[in-house]
Design brief:
Layout: H1 6-12, E1 17-22, E2 31-36, H2 44-54, E3 59-66, E4 71-77, E5 82-83, H3 87-101, E6 104-110, E7 113-120, E8 129-133, E9 138-141, H4 144-154, E10 168-171, E11 175-180, H5 184-188, H6 194-204, E12 208-216, E13 219-226, E14 231-234, H7 238-250, E15 258-264, E16 272-279, E17 282-293
Parallel strand pairs: 2-3, 4-6, 11-12, 13-15
Antiparallel strand pairs: 1-2, 1-17, 3-4, 4-5, 6-7, 7-8, 8-17, 9-10, 10-11, 12-13, 13-14, 15-16, 16-17
Helix pairs in contact: 3-7, 4-6
């Protein structure tokens, strides 16, 4: 980036822990993420300890930065473990960078692969937004044993599932089990076995469960338990949103380029809006949302 002086660069490469709410324009909504823009001197244990101290579902650490080329290496840690990819922390990191180097194109190198991100702002003082492009998505029907194990930990039965939206294991950087509830009431009544579901998720390698209820063809309510990260539920889950876009594509429910709205966090009092752009001819999915700083 031309015209950037040393002082500006120093401000960008701060080792302070920033806090942003992603997929919202309200600091009291969305999903909070920690962001460390200069973690070049941090070891794995230090990043994990800081993520646990922050206490959010994810904290993103920029371990290498090329400000001129707008290319950054990012790692993600929950309070319990490193995660290969996290969508809401990606949006938070991208907006934090845009706040410092201006909006535009970014390229993030993550453990899941390269993630292009576009940041923009609709005028002076407007809330910044980011659009990430996922790695190639993949979705397959869930095995009966996988579904039964998850339902048992959730306290759900097969009669609680929408027969028109079959259970799948979907991938958009990390894997998620997608279960569609038959009713909004079933989705809203989430009281699960935390340790039991965490064990099931570790057994099958899932990062979250993407629990959904279809209000219309283009609008879904979603909830994402995340016990393997030490968090009961995510208010907004960008990685699962990308995987869900791949799920819709695989099922043939998107036959032309379409924008899908996911409403998440409402049952937690932290409403979030995730916009998912799906192209039936492209395995990569685009997930968009706003992000705002959170005061200490």
């Amino acid at each position: 980036m031309s015209g950037m002086n040393a002082d500006a660069t120093a401000r960008i490469l701060t080792a302070d822990t920033l806090r942003y709410a992603a997929f919202t324009a309200d600091p009291a909504g969305g999903n909070p993420a920690g962001v460390v823009l200069d973690a070049s001197g941090f070891g794995d244990a230090e990043m994990l300890a800081l993520a646990a101290e922050v206490g959010y579902s994810e904290t993103a650490f920029v371990t290498r930065a090329d400000v001129v080329r707008r290319r950054f290496s990012v790692r993600y840690f929950s309070p319990l473990a490193e995660v290969a990819f996290c969508g809401h922390a990606t949006v938070a990191t991208a907006v934090a960078l845009a706040d410092r180097i201006g909006p535009g194109e970014l390229l993030l190198d993550t453990p899941a692969g390269e993630i292009p991100v576009t940041t923009a702002r609709d005028g002076a003082g407007a809330v910044a937004r980011a659009t990430l492009t996922s790695v190639a998505t993949v979705s397959r029907p869930a095995e009966p044993a996988e579904v039964d194990a998850a339902l048992g930990a959730l306290g759900w039965g097969r009669a609680d599932l929408d027969p028109e939206l079959p259970p799948h294991v979907s991938f958009g950087g990390v894997r998620h089990l997608v279960l569609a509830a038959r009713s909004r009431e079933r989705l809203g009544d989430l009281d699960y076995d935390f340790d039991g579901l965490a064990e099931v998720m570790r057994r099958y390698g899932w990062t979250t469960l993407q629990l959904v209820w279809r209000e219309t063809e283009r609008e879904f309510h979603v909830r994402d338990p995340f016990p393997v990260g030490g968090v009961v539920e995510d208010p907004a889950t960008g990685a699962a949103a990308a995987a869900f876009g791949g799920y819709l594509r695989t099922l043939g429910l998107v036959r032309e380029p379409a924008s899908i709205t996911l409403r998440q966090g409402e049952d937690m009092g932290r409403p979030s809006r995730l916009l998912v752009d799906v192209d039936p001819d492209d395995a990569r999915v685009r997930v968009s949302g706003q992000a705002v700083p959170i005061g200490r």
